[in-house]
Each structure stands twice: as structure tokens, then as C-alpha cells.
Amino acid sequence: AVVASSESFDKTDKDNDGVVTVDELLKDLQAKAAAQSPPLNPAPVSAQAEATLKTADLNEDGNLSTAEANGLPSDAELVKFLKADTAQNGLIDVAELKVVLTKEGQPAPSTASVTGILNKYDTDGLGTLNAKE
After folding, report:
1. Residues whose CB is less than 8 angstroms from the CB of residue 115 and which lie 6 or more positions away in sequence, other chains included
2. Does the predicted TM-score (pTM) go above 0.70?
3. What tens-digit pLDDT sequence spans the chain (133 residues)?
């Protein structure tokens, strides 16, 4: 996972202070984006690191503790998210989700059905999905 397992958390926590900062998370996400084939653009990763930290930082101290890191998306989920986030803003909107849900050779799902799916998982009610949702 991004930093959800203790081993992954320890690798991300470069200074071994027991918390993951946005800079440490950013470097981890950029490395994961670069490791993809073809490599993903690392530019959206900055927004994603900030969005992930904001979503998971329950005590709002600007860092992720081991407990807060539990429940973050797995590496595979994160890669899918980064690929779907074509606007590179750390969020997936209805149009981006519609592309993801459209199967090759099949008609695209209706905007209404895609909006319904997005709303089902949009726990913060902002009309978009972040990586944790």
C-alpha cells in the first residue's frame, strides 16, 4: 500500500521519526509513478500527496502516523487512480470516471449512471473522488 503496511510505512518514513510528511509521501508517490510502464507524469503526484495527507491526517498535524496510514489505497489502486486522474489534480470527476468505466468496443455509460456511481463513493460530498474514496 502507499504507506498502509508497516514495512511500506517504514520505507516512506525516510527520517525514521515515526511520521510521514507530505515531502516523504510525495517522494514515495513520484517513485511509484516513475516505475510504471509507461511512466506516469509525476506532476499530478504532488496534488495527490497533498490530497492523501489531508484526507488521512485525522489529527490535522500535517503528518501521517502509522495509525492514520492504515486504510490508504494499495499501490495497485493508487496507480489506477493516477491513470484515471487525467486532469492531474488529485481528484476524479464524472468525466474521468466515465472514461474509466467505458469498456473498449462498448457504448459509454450514461452520465447519470456514472454520477450515481461517483456519488455512492464520494464520502466527502465534493462531487469528486480522492484516492482514499
Report:
1. 94
2. no
3. 455 556 678 888 889 998 988 888 888 878 877 887 777 766 666 777 777 777 788 888 988 888 888 767 776 777 788 788 888 777 899 999 999 899 877 888 999 999 999 999 999 899 999 877 8
